[in-house]
Amino acid sequence: MTGRPEVRLSMPARAEAIGVVRQALAGMADALAIDPAVLADMKMAVTEACTNVVVHAYAAGDGLRAPAVGDGPLEVELLTDEAALTVAVRDHGSGLDAPGGKAALGLGLPLIAALSDEFEVRAAGDGDGDGGTEVRMRFLYTREADPAEIHPIGETGWEPPVSSG
Amino acid sequence: METNSIALDDTEGDVVVVLVEGEHDIYTVPTLRDRLEEARGRGGGVVVDLNRATFLDSSVLGALLDARRHAQEAGTGFAVSVGAEVEPGVQRILDITGLVPVLPVVNGREAALAAVRDDQDLSSPG
After folding, report:
1. Domain range annotation of chain B
2. Which of A84, B67, B77, B125 could make an SS bond with B116 (beta carbons 3.0 to 4.6 A apart)?
3. Confidence grade of residue A98 (pLDDT, cut at 50, 70, 90)
4. What fold, for B6-123?
5. How far apart are CA A49 and CA B95, in angstroms?
6. Under an 8 A CB cutoff, do A15 and B55 touch?
């Protein structure tokens, strides 16, 4: 999952940054004439990855209220190759085993899996003591299959609450 | 720039409509939760109108599910409405999470109001 870096954003990891990331994705999708359905999936998957950084990476947020002040950066990199756009979302926070927020529904990674054609979560550090997490998501310009059918959310064990009755 | 506003419309009398416009995520979800609580405080049913929403993330779904649970506990009606043409940034997350029948999501504000009023009738004694 590599490609040519086109855009690199680094912002304080605050809730208001996530909309800026979506704007950057929309601009890139426009330049690459990406299908609106793929763009919608990209925005959703990348939003969930950025939300994880804002809520979990640096602060003990409860997920209900966004932390007022970010203590570290949210880094987003957009890379292109001939077949796909890859989005890397990075933090320099406490690593992979942060507790889940109350309001996150536990849907972040299931949504990323269902909306991207390929993704990986890995430690972002280079062994130099700099911790952090990186989520890399790849979105094909032209899809042969719907990733939500290959990785349905129900398969992750997530279930919606039962219908009212 | 589009507006990302959340407003209450109480012209329907017994049912408060929470009108959600534009893009919503954890930045605006505290406001959404406040508006939903305000709507709940009126004591009647609640419709969340997503007709003019363009993007929702999972934290918004969490707020909607909580509002639905509160309405169930209080025995009041709750429904979400979408327009005839739903933005992919709204439809997709509702579809893949299976929440359309759960919330429930209804086509059109009038149908949502009717669904909420049906709920009220069923839960009121007599």
Report:
1. 6-123
2. B77
3. very low
4. Transcription Regulator spoIIAA (3.30.750)
5. 20
6. no
Q: Are B96 and A156 in contact (CB under 8 A)?
A: no
- Across the beta sheet with B6-9, the strand order is B6-9, B15-24, B45-56, B78-82, B105-107
CB-based contact, A150 to chain B, within 8 Å = no
List pLDDT tens digits, range A65-93: 444 444 789 999 999 999 999 999 999 88
Q: Count of residues for chain B?
A: 126
Place of tokens 């009121």: B124
The helix or strand, by DSSP H or E, that contains position B109, with its residue range, turns out to be: helix B109-123
| Average pLDDT along chain A | 84
Q: Least CA distance to A65: which residue of chain B?
A: B30
Across all residues in chain B, what is the average pLDDT? 93
CB contacts, 8 Å: B29 with chain A:
66, 103
Is the CB of A105 inside 8 Å of chain B's CB atoms? yes
Q: Mention every residue, 6+ apart, whose C-beta is less than 8 A from residue A82.
A: none
How remote is the C-alpha of B38 from its chain's centroid? 13
Cβ separation of B104 and A163 shorter than 8 Å? Answer: yes
Residue pLDDT, tens place only, B105-115: 999 999 999 99
pLDDT digits (tens, 9 = 90+) for B46-93: 999 999 999 999 999 999 999 999 999 999 999 999 999 999 999 999
Answer yes or no: do B97 and A107 touch at CB < 8 A: yes
The residue-averaged pLDDT of A4-10 equals 90
* A11 and B CB contact within 8 Å: no
